[in-house]
Write a structure and sequence with these properties.
Helix content: over 70%
Mean pLDDT: 83
Radius of gyration: 20 Å
CATH topology: Amino acid/polyamine transporter I
Shape: globular
CATH class: Mainly Alpha
Low-confidence stretches: none
Structural class: mainly alpha
Strand order of the largest sheet: 1-2
Number of helices: 15
Largest sheet: 2 strands, antiparallel
Strand content: under 5%
CATH architecture: Up-down Bundle
Number of domains: 1
Length: about 350
């Protein structure tokens, strides 16, 4: 991949954290993964450990090839065969990007507007994200700092306004439903943790501080996730685990004299989060495209990737059941295992056998 510029570890951590928060706000659990708030909070303790196991092959690759991207490592390890896997990786990024666009359209349509044009919000988001990706990584990484401030403000106002509504008796004991539910809940967090893959792809673009970036992003996420789960469980009770957008429901219940209801503020922050996740995945998709496409097509990586995302978004946005099936398929965890475990492990084994890269000390 071409080097268009790098960002700091702190900017990378903020980008990944905000993308992860978007995933958390849209997390849809299958029936066997739905648990009470106490169990979900307890499961958060095990989620980072599970993620470390999942991302371990990728970490070992980063140590062996500290300045190489995942597609470049594939070429060194497998030669031309790596282009097949890079194409699949590009397809996964396109799918994630289109899923974000469609989820954004569905959220705004379901929560605030009656019978809006089916593709209006998706088209607006895709246009904004396309412009952001065209400007480059450094530009939208700087913008993420503003979004972080807006998110913290929104979270603080909503949480502070809900303090009188908290009922601790609605928070059941962590093991009330057994260890099986704890494991299912912990895996639900990891199964949709695509930001771990984004981290592996983004790592070569960090000036320094890969370990601190990884730690900061996960610590921020754990704190925010714990706060959201606690509020939705103690304020909404059992309904918090059943509704599709529990934090938006919480925001609609809050009111302060200066802003009245806070759901509008939450929607604005949601829009910023969707913009950043769409922009980052689109930008990474165009970078991965360059690694396998013929030279004359590689120069048009942005337009090929944007066109693919737009086409898939059109398909997903046209029928909400398709979006639900996509979420359920990703929620199984199989795609994460394929791209975060199997693919890096394949590259690592091939690199060791072919004596490529720098052996870990």
């Amino acid at each position: 991949m071409e080097q268009e510029g790098k960002i700091s570890g702190a900017q990378g951590a903020v980008l990944l954290f905000l993308c992860r928060i978007f995933s958390l706000l849209t997390l849809t659990l299958r029936p066997e993964q739905q648990v009470n708030g106490g169990t979900a909070l307890f499961a958060l303790v095990f989620a980072p450990l599970s993620q470390l196991l999942v991302i371990l092959p990728g970490w070992l690759l980063l140590r062996r090839f500290p300045d190489r991207s995942l597609p470049e490592i594939g070429v060194l390890a497998l030669g031309k065969w790596a282009k097949v896997f890079s194409f699949l990786l590009w397809g996964m990024l396109v799918l994630l990007c289109a899923g974000t666009v469609s989820e954004f359209q569905f959220f705004l349509s379901a929560s605030s507007y009656e019978n809006p044009p089916v593709y209006l919000f998706a088209a607006l988001l895709l246009a904004a994200a396309g412009y952001g990706a065209y400007l480059g990584l450094e530009a939208f990484a700087r913008f993420s700092l503003f979004v972080l401030g807006a998110f913290l403000l929104s979270f603080g106002l909503i949480g502070g306004s809900l303090l009188p509504e908290i009922r601790l008796n609605q928070l059941l004991p962590p093991l009330a439903e057994g260890w099986e539910k704890v494991g299912a809940s912990a895996w639900a967090f990891v199964a949709k943790d695509w930001e771990a893959l984004l981290f592996l792809l983004l790592a070569p673009r960090l000036r320094r501080g890969k370990k601190s970036c990884y730690a900061a992003w996960n610590l921020l996420y754990l704190a925010a996730a714990a706060g959201m789960i606690f509020l939705s469980s103690t304020v909404l009770g059992e309904y918090g685990g059943l509704c599709r957008y529990p934090f938006f429901t919480l925001a609609s219940l809050t009111e302060i004299s200066a802003l009245e209801r806070l759901d509008s503020l939450h929607m604005a922050v949601w829009s910023f989060l969707a913009f950043l996740r769409t922009t980052l995945t689109l930008w990474l998709a165009k970078e991965v495209w360059k690694s396998f496409a013929p030279k004359k097509w590689a120069e048009q990586s942005f337009w090929f990737s944007l066109g693919a995302v737009a086409g898939l978004s059109f398909v997903l946005t046209g029928d909400v059941t398709r979006l639900s099936r996509l979420g359920q398929g990703i929620g199984t965890g199989i795609p994460v295992l394929l791209f975060l475990v199997a693919l890096p492990l394949l590259y690592l084994i091939a690199a060791v056998l072919r004596k490529k890269g720098k052996p870990a000390e």
